[in-house]
């Protein structure tokens, strides 16, 4: 069945959605994106995603193409038109179309695209019971990973390397320390303390990360925001990742080494439950 997508002010069937070959998103990866999850037809953490979108755009000298309420209306209209119960909304804003030149063009009109991905049972993913197998790869991305740009080729290569190794995903390592997963933030648990890398230019400032750390602190769990080594991760009691599409997902092995008991741990499992419960309550 054809989806209805949003392109520059119009709702159109996906087959009719068109963007210029001169679009700078296509030519220079000159654009940013957000992925927001939908549970029971409602948006999870919409405001966090809208704020990060604005931050990413600002870092690239672009303005928000519309206000928060207009953006929310489009998200909701796409959920409605596509009958999404559980799924994802992908949003992309590029600098727009202009003759090819490295310098930013003056006065280009941004391209705004949104589409839905239906994911029935998103919150009941069997992988949450099984846990993810992770491999490590060097982090060869650029230095502004805090900006959520559409240049995702290295993460794609990482996912393919994981697949070839019979694993689910890859964690990226720089100077012996884990930065993050290819499309998620990385955590370990040692002696009851949750450890995740501090914010900086080296990682994406995950919206799920912010919520999960808030919930963990509210539940009196110990949290340390600092870099951890790959070796520490292999010797941790537990490991997990967070993202809008996986929520909290346990990790059970790293480079073939079992983490803890080699099954999803109690902290990750509890945080997943809390996150899903609280996020559903706050969904809009
Ligand atoms: N990825 N780190 C990276 C590199 C990411 O691509 C993502 C999200 C995250 C988690 O951020 P958040 O909690 O805001 O989803 C961390 C999305 C889901 C994606 O590219 O599909």
Structure description:
The protein is of the alpha+beta class. It folds into 2 domains: 4-120, D-amino Acid Aminotransferase, Chain A, domain 1 (2-Layer Sandwich), CATH 3.30.470.10; 127-282, D-amino Acid Aminotransferase, subunit A, domain 2 (D-amino Acid Aminotransferase, Chain A, domain 2), CATH 3.20.10.10. It is 29% helix and 29% strand. Strands 7, 8, 9, 10, 11, 12, 13, 14 and 15 form a 9-stranded mixed sheet that branches. A 6-stranded antiparallel sheet has the order 2-1-6-5-3-4. A hairpin with a 2-residue loop joins strand 1 and strand 2. 38% of the residues are buried.
Notable traits:
single chain, about 280 residues, alpha+beta, D-amino Acid Aminotransferase, Chain A, domain 1, D-amino Acid Aminotransferase, Chain A, domain 2, 2 domains, nine-stranded mixed sheet, six-stranded antiparallel sheet, 8 helices, about 30% helix, binds N-(5'-phosphopyridoxyl)-D-alanine
Task: Describe what is shown at a glance.
With 284 residues, the chain is of the alpha+beta class. It contains 8 helices and 15 strands. N-(5'-phosphopyridoxyl)-D-alanine binds at residues 35, 180, 183-185, 204, 206-209, 242-245.
């Amino acid at each position: 069945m054809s989806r209805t997508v949003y392109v520059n002010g119009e709702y159109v069937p996906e087959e009719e959605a068109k963007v210029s070959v001169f679009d700078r998103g296509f030519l220079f990866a000159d654009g940013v994106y957000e992925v927001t999850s939908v549970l029971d037809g409602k948006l999870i953490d919409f405001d966090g995603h809208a704020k990060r979108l604005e931050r990413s755009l600002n870092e690239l000298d672009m303005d928000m193409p519309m206000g928060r309420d207009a953006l929310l209306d489009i998200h909701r209209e796409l959920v409605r038109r596509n009958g999404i119960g559980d799924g994802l909304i992908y949003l992309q804003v590029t600098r727009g179309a202009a003759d090819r030149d490295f310098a930013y063009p003056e006065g280009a009109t941004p391209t705004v695209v949104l589409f839905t991905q239906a994911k029935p049972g998103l919150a009941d993913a069997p992988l949450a019971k099984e846990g993810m197998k992770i491999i490590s790869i060097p982090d060869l991305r650029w230095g502004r990973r805090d900006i959520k740009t559409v240049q995702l080729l290295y993460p794609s290569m990482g996912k393919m390397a994981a697949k070839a190794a019979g694993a689910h995903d890859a964690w990226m390592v720089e100077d012996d320390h884990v930065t993050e997963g290819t499309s998620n933030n990385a955590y370990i648990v040692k002696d009851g303390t949750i450890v995740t890398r501090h914010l900086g230019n080296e990682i994406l400032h995950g919206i799920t990360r912010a919520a999960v750390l808030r919930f963990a602190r509210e539940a009196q769990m110990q949290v340390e925001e600092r870099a951890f080594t790959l070796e520490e991760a292999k010797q941790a009691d537990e490991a997990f990742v967070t993202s809008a599409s996986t929520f909290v997902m346990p990790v059970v092995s790293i480079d073939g080494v079992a983490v803890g008991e080699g099954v999803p741990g109690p902290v990750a499992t509890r945080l997943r439950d809390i996150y899903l419960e609280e996020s559903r309550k706050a969904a809009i």
